[in-house]
Amino acid sequence: MTAQILDGKATAAAIKSDLTARVAALKARGVTPGLGTLLVGDDPGSRWYVNGKHKDCAQVGIGSIQRELPDTATQEEIEAVVRELNADPACTGYIVQLPLPKGIDTNRVLELMDPAKDADGLHPMNLGRLVLNETGPLPCTPQGVVQLLRHHGVEINGAHVVVVGRGVTIGRSIPLLLTRKSENATVTQCHTGTRDLAAHLKQADIIVAAAGVPHIVKPEHVKPGAAVLDVGVSRDENGKIVGDVHPGVAEVAAWISPNPGGVGPMTRAQLLVNVVEAAERDAAAVSAG
Ligand SMILES: Nc1nc2c(c(=O)[nH]1)N[C@@H](CN(C=O)c1ccc(C(=O)N[C@@H](CCC(=O)O)C(=O)O)cc1)CN2
């Protein structure tokens, strides 16, 4: 068996095309959505991600507000920019690019954000809304995973999903999304404390690998016909991405997400969705007077 590709680039392009029309409709009503970003430090990877987000904005007609601080920035300096973005009327939603430099209290920064402007869905209020099944911005990579499966018609309803990883930006919220009634999956969350990872993986109809451990999911771990999503990003000595999924898995699985080209582009697309939905909520509130 050679797995079919869960094509994140093509799916993200379809989402962006839909958003372009929605942004044009908002502009016709006098509302221009704007994405703000705060980059602290000069990590080349983080800079690449931030630049990519602004390129995406330009493609669909969303405005850009780019803020940067050196890696010597203090907690207070970072929080001052967060307050400015909270108050900036041109900024519909914004993100603080993670990770922040060592010594910075990331949770304190995220908690200071206006939850209505949290384009990443990582503010505690929005994570709480997700738990309560209320409307709000959804965490970008987890929702990207769900959309990638939906777009390709992979059966989620009743499926047994095994998630590897429990990090706050990805692993922690994937079970919350997939166990909603709309998705209806059964989820097992594995992590570094899991006793027999191989036995869990072998049971899975869908595997979401978000451990950040190169090739932790191997062909012998995968049930023939499963869907496997590779969310892990590690780098080899030449800077090339090495995912959590061994390339041999493509010979066993029915579906596989490439890495790069799978969940990464979906993360970027979902960020734009969150900004446009926030602008649509603002526009509806203005119309309602
Ligand atoms: N505030 C946030 N910080 C971080 C997030 C996040 O969602 N919010 N996630 C990651 C980085 N990230 C977005 O910020 C991100 C990662 C990867 C991609 C992507 O498109 N990757 C490409 C490959 C790129 C490459 O070759 O290096 C792909 O998978 O095809 C986009 C966004 C951590 N920080």
From TrEMBL:
Pfam family for this entry, one: THF_DHG_CYH_C
Q: Does the keyword Ubl conjugation apply?
A: no
Kindly tell me the pathway this chain contributes to. Answer: One-carbon metabolism; tetrahydrofolate interconversion
Q: Where is the Tetrahydrofolate dehydrogenase/cyclohydrolase catalytic domain?
A: 6-120
- The protein's name in its UniProt record: Bifunctional protein FolD
The record, for SUPFAM superfamilies, names: Aminoacid dehydrogenase-like, N-terminal domain (SSF53223), NAD(P)-binding Rossmann-fold domains (SSF51735)
List the signal peptide residues: none
Spell out the family assignment given in the record's similarity comment.
Belongs to the tetrahydrofolate dehydrogenase/cyclohydrolase family.
Q: Where does NADP(+) bind?
A: G165, R166, G167, V233
